[in-house]
Every structure is written in C-alpha cells, then in structure tokens.
Write a structure and sequence with these properties.
CATH architecture: Orthogonal Bundle
Number of helices: 9
Largest sheet: none
Radius of gyration: 19 Å
Order of helices and strands: HHHHHHHHH
Shape: globular
Strand content: under 5%
CATH topology: Globin-like
Number of strands: 0
Length: 187
C-alpha cells in the first residue's frame, strides 16, 4: 500500500491541532515526563488486562508490547513529528488490522493513555494553571494525531484485506480490477 506520509502528516496535524509550538513544548517538557512513562505504560497494560475483550489480544505478549508502547510514548516527548513519525503510526494501524484488533480499541486505549498522561501533567505542572493547560493541549494534539494516523492506516489496511478476499473469491485479477475501477472512476 502506497502512502504519501508528508501529505498525511499535514492532514493529521490540521485535525489534531499539532502545531510547531505544541511540538516544541512536548520536547521541552520531555525530560520531566519521560522518567514517569514506564509507570504510565505499566498502568495502561494493567487496565487493558482487566478488560476481558482486550485481554485476549495480550496473552503472552504484554512484555514485548510494553517495550513498543514505551518507545512510542517517549517519541511523544522527543519528536520530531514528521513523515517518519507518521509512517511509524501508520504501521501501528496496519499491525492492529493484522492481529484483528477491533478499531474501537484504538480510541478507547488512547483515552486511557490520555487520562493517565493528563494526571501526570497536573501532578508535575499543576502549580502553573496556564502552562499546565498548554501542556495538556499539546499532549492531546500529539495523541490525537497518532490516533488519526493509526485510524487512516486501519481503514486502508482493512480495505486492502477485503479487496484481496474479493479477488480470491471472484477469480478476478488485480489488473482487471484496477482497469475496471479506473474506467468507472467518478470524474
């Protein structure tokens, strides 16, 4: 699947409000937040294990998933939030399709993560309400951006899987399908 990650980065940032100022703020606070991210990841996976629908996807994989999750969380406070970051988030969405993770798990999981991150931010920066609000907005923007990209990937990967099933069932070649699609494209 071919994807223009530069274009997707601009698109995702426009919806999430991930601006250059918010990116800079995330990187600036990184040294204060990153030492606590292991605990955020541990708590997140404990919450997931307590959700019966989610726990089946975690069996025997929690420790390796924690490592990947921890790297992503550090990236939220390290940057850069460029086409390479977008490509990584896109890959996450694709993996979620491959393991047949329900799409709503991504939004639900991001809510759990944000709840914990916002609490950490209030604990760390709560003495300055204005700055605390700016940091929460920046975290919300970067996690929203990540979720948007993962959902775009999830949708594209799901459609690609369905197309492969259709081609197999119908016996139609990819070339014929592409030619038919091009011939009937709305102009």
């Amino acid at each position: 699947m071919s994807q223009d990650f530069e274009k997707l980065t601009v698109y995702g940032k426009s919806f999430s409000g991930l601006t250059a100022d918010k990116e800079a703020l995330l990187v600036e606070i990184g040294p204060q937040i990153k030492p606590h991210l292991g605990a955020v990841t541990d708590e997140f996976y404990q919450q997931l294990l307590n959700i019966s629908e989610a726990s089946t996807f975690l069996a025997g994989r929690v420790e390796s998933l924690k490592k990947t999750h921890g790297l992503w969380m550090e990236g939220l406070f390290t940057g850069p939030f460029d086409k390479n970051f977008t490509a990584q988030m896109f890959k996450v969405g694709d993996v979620h399709v491959k393991v047949k993770l329900p799409v709503e798990f991504m939004a639900g999981a991001m809510t759990l993560i944000n709840n914990r991150l916002f609490s950490l931010i209030v604990d760390t920066f709560g003495d300055d309400k204005q700055r605390c609000g700016q940091i929460i907005a920046a975290v919300n923007a970067v996690t929203g951006f990540s979720l948007l990209v993962m959902q775009q990937s999830y949708q594209a990967s799901s459609l690609a899987e369905e197309l492969e099933k259709f081609l197999k069932i119908s016996g139609m070649s990819r070339t014929l399908f592409t030619n038919l699609a091009l011939a009937y494209r709305d102009k």
